Every structure is written in structure tokens, then in C-alpha cells.
Description:
It contains 15 helices and 14 strands. By secondary structure, it is α+β, with helices and mostly antiparallel strands. The protein has three domains: 9-126, no CATH class; 130-377, Orthogonal Bundle (Transferase(Phosphotransferase), domain 1); 387-422, no CATH class.
Amino acid sequence: MNSEPPPYKKIGKGSYGCVVRPALPNVNNSGKRIEYPENISKVFLNSANATGKIIPSKLLAKTAVNTNERIETYGIPRTIYPRYRRTFNARAEAEDPDIANIRRINGNPCNIHSNNANIGVIRMPYLGIDVYDVYDAFVKKTNLDVIHEIQSLSLLELLEKGVKPLFHTVEMLRRHGRIHLDIKPENVMIQPLTGEMHIVDYDLERSYDTIDKFLPKPEIYFLYPPELLLWQPGPIEDLYGAWLRSEYENKLVYVKTYKSRYMANIPFRQMMNKFVFRDKQKDIRDLIDYKTTHTLVSIQREMVDTLDSYCLARSLLLLFGVYIIDKNWNLYTNELRYVIGNILAPMYLFDVEKRLRIDDASLLLDELIDRLKVRYTTPKRVTPRSRSRIPKTPTKNYSSLRRLFVDGGTRKKLKSARRTKKGRRRA
């Protein structure tokens, strides 16, 4: 290829490989190079499963496309373009400047080396930034443009175009007996300009029937509900420590970052005290009591039914926790408290039996959106102007107003009016 590739930027990384922008080009049958400057590419490398078997990158890319085609039948918007898969040869760097260019980003971010003979690539639309990027933009001031774009949104736009589709996605998966298993802040994307939000990365998506074989790594226990710990091997105390480890890390981040804001903002402080700064001994007692009164099958069923909504609420609590301390959103303080206290917080409850289901949360969200539409789109009714305490005068000149009060007849009328209860109120 003679054409020089564009400068690629890494916008995501994981065990699969990395995500780069713009998308890697495609070559049609006639050898013509097709560019996709508005899209992104997900680059898959060979990876090993739990048994140590190597899964080819080409198969991973094909599975990702097939999964998106399946979830589209559930009524969930797809996040991967169909029929676009390309395999690159990493050993032929001289002939493939695109791969060579990706290898130079931040010191080989995709771990592309000669051992990865083939690299699977799929093309996706650019869906914005993830929740952690929004958090860093507001708290660490990493991207002021993102702050200005999000502050220009209204709460109605964010709820209607963003949160509502997320609830719809989780609800559709639940109705079809499927589970995402990987909803976290990195996989919840938001477009700062429009407020549109999507859930991405369906690589771990599976049916309810296979959840009993799912054993997540201890370092990601904190992403899942506490009832997951009840059917894992090992003492509850040790499992709870692994589950809570990141929560204590969050505590240090919040207290250090917000400091005066954290202490001054009562709703945000109450939210963090309730859902981040937990009572370890009480939680362990509750878990032990719950395990003795429930069977393993019932615990698994409850976990599967609320896992995705629990993880989604956790991600959105981080997002709305940023909004509620932002001065530009003071107009929506009551609505933000309602979203956090009446919708997200009940979805994130420690007690699984009291946890709010996603279908009930969707109803509450629809009611809130309807109230916001009435409040911010209906013109205010103009009320008749109340009577002035000073009698009307033919002119606004101060001297004329003074002559009116000096006049004996007018003063007598005012004195007589003050004797009545109605007159005293006007005075």
C-alpha cells in the first residue's frame, strides 16, 4: 500500500486487544482502499480461555458480529457494523503500514507482536466516551470540552436519550433470558453533545441456564451483587473483602477529590455513605443469615434476575454523583435527588429481596420524564398582576406622588383602609 495511514489514537484497551480511532481501512476486491474516518475499530488478538485453549482472533471477531446480530433481534440497537471483518497479518508490517502505525501508539498498546500471526478487526460506530471519562473530565479536569458539552444538555435530554435506552436494553435482555455479565462504567458509553447512551461489549453475554458455571475473577467481585459471594468457594469473610476492596479505594478517591464539595453537598454525601462506605460486620452477618435461609438455586435465580440492573445502577450512580455536585445543574437538584434516591439507589440495594427490578425502575423513569416534559416545555401561565400598595397616579414623577400623599383627602382614605384587616395586609 502506497498511501500513508492516518494517525491512530487508542481509546480503549482490554484482554481482547484494543480499540482505535479512526477505523482501520478496508480493501475491496479491486484493491481500492476504503477509509472510515468517522468510525472506530476493535482489534482482536489471539486469547486463551479458562482452560488455556487459544482462541483465534478471527473467531473472536466473528463471534462479536454474530452476537450483535442476535441482540438486534431482541430489539436492542446494534453497536457493530454487519459483514465487516478483516484479518491483518502482523508479520508483514512493511506491507501493512496500518498495523505498524498502531504498534507505535503509546509503545505497542495492542500487544501486537510476531506471535500474533493474524489480527481480527471489526468496525463500529463511534458512540462517545465512557462513564469513567466523564468522571475524569469533571473531577480531574482532563477534558474541558466534554464538561462544556455535557453542561449544555438538559436533564430531560439525558434521561430520555440516554438512561431510558439503557433501561430498555437491560429489560430486553432479561425478557429473553439473556444476561450481559459485563456492565461496568467502561462499557456504558455517552455522546456528550446529544446525551445518547449505549451499552457495549457483549462478548460475555449468555443465557440464564449457564450462569451456574460462571466463576468471575476475585479482582472483579465488587462489580457484582453480594449474593454472588454466597455460592463461591471459600469463607464469606474473605470473599467479602475481595468484593469490598475497590469500594474502599473509591472512598479514598471521593474524599480526596471532593473534600469541601463532598462535605457541603448533603444529597451526594448521603448517597456515598449508603452505597460506598459500608458497614462490613453488619453486611457479613446479613450474608450469613441469607445463606442459611435460602437454597443455592434460589440465590442464583435472584442474582441472575438483578445482576445487569445492579451493575448498571452502580455505573449510573457514579455519573449522576458528578452531576449533583455541578453548579450548572442546580436547576435540576430535586429531579437528580429523585433519580438517585428513588430509581438508582433501590436498584443498588444490598438486600436482594428489596432491590428494585428493572421493569419497575423503567416505569418510574417514564413518570419522571413525563413530569419534566410538562415542567420545561409547557409555557408558564401568566397570572394577573396584584394590586399595588400605593394608589395609581397619573404620572410616575416623584413630586406628583408626594403631592398625592400630602393631600388630606387621599391620606384620610389610606388611614381608613388600614383599619380593616384587608387593608392592613396591603399596607
